[in-house]
Amino acid sequence: MQVARRIFDASRKGQRIVVNIYSATEAISSNSSEKTRLTLLLAHANGFHKELWEPTLERVFAHKSESWYIDQAIALDSYNHGDSAIANRSFIDSEEFSPWTENARDILAILAQLGSSRNIVGVGHSWGASSLLLAEIMAPSSFANLIITDPVLHSGSDQSANALAKLTLKRRYQWSTAEEACQYFNNHPFFRIWDQRIIDLHLRYGLEQVGEDESLILKCRPSNESAVYSGSRDDSPHAMQNLAKVQCPVAFLTGETSEQSPPTHIARITENMVDCRHVVMDDVGHLLLHQDPDRTADRYVEFLDGFVSKKPRPTANL
Question: What is the structure's pLDDT at 267?
Fold first, then answer.
């Protein structure tokens, strides 16, 4: 899998969105004209970053489908996360409230800059998943399909977001050395249940060096992560209440033990969607992508198979 970096204009003047564009290492086969060409646009969870998609993408790219192939997978860092946070630091340093519609508008801005000639499948996790739904609600037919992984969809009366916002501000976010950070993430109960590849990627790409010494700090500051939790107040309910407006085929993947997106809740709120499939992955929670990226990838492949099987096969131009 090859990777290139690109910077897009955000929806707000002066801000930038940094993305990684992944493509297959192997040359596209000669019969590719008979297959559906797909572009994936990937939006991460709150507090994380684009590189955490890599183990899942490696496995998806390695899959040899007879009906589709991935031309590119575009993983973004939301405006106040990862490398985008570094690019936008002057805009976000005093941020206290981050509406989820801002993330959705940035996604639509990226789509506009990509052009309309692509068959785009949106793939999102948690906040990123909810942002993709909001983008499709705001601009119908932006996506050919959506893969929605454990989205955060709650009513306005949900108090968990406020609790998470306050708790996040108390989270440790700075370490004296890389070794100290490594010990912290590998031993902390919250992180040590993750796949080791995810932990390693978070250590490599989720932190930045500050000052002249060896100290490291999270690229996504606790204040920015907290602002996103606070921003769920209006926008998460809006997404949930307007799911029936999503016209493209959607596949939901939720963790069996997820507290953010209990499977019974997702099953109930998606009942009236036009074209919807819901799969529950056992033995994982809300961060299923981090706990088991390989099984997550396998479910994504199944979803892509299902999406493409509903479409007419392309014909070669002879």
Answer: 96
* Structure tokens that stand for 164 in this block: 């998470």
Rounded to the nearest integer, the mean pLDDT of the chain is: 93
What one-character-per-residue DSSP string does 40-90 give?
EEEEPPTT--GGGGHHHHHHHHH---SSEEEEEEEEEPPTTSHHHHHHTHH
Rounded Cα distance, 144 and 222, in Å: 34
Cα distance between residue 20 and residue 73, in whole Å: 8
Query: Does residue 182 lie in a domain region?
Result: no
Indicate which CATH number applies to the domain containing 248.
Answer: 3.40.50.1820
Nearest residue to 104 (alpha-carbon basis) of 63, 148, 145, 137 = 137
Structure tokens at 141: 């037919």
What are the distances in angstroms from CA 162 to CA 13, 158, 166?
Answer: 29, 8, 6
Note whether residue 13 is domain-resident: yes
Predicted confidence at residue 163, as pLDDT, reads 83
The arithmetic mean of pLDDT across residues 86-105, rounded, is 96
Q: What span, in angstroms and rounded, lies between the C-alpha atoms of 43 and 148?
A: 10
Residue 49 in any domain: the answer is yes
pLDDT for position 25 = 87
Residue 311 pLDDT exceeds 90: no
CA Rg value for the chain: 19
> Does residue 76 fall inside a structural domain?
yes
Rounded CA separation 229/205 (Å): 22
Q: pTM for this one?
A: 0.94
Query: Domain count of the chain?
Result: 1
Structural domain including 70 reads 2-159+235-309
Which of 71-80, 158-167, 208-217 comes out lowest in average pLDDT? 158-167
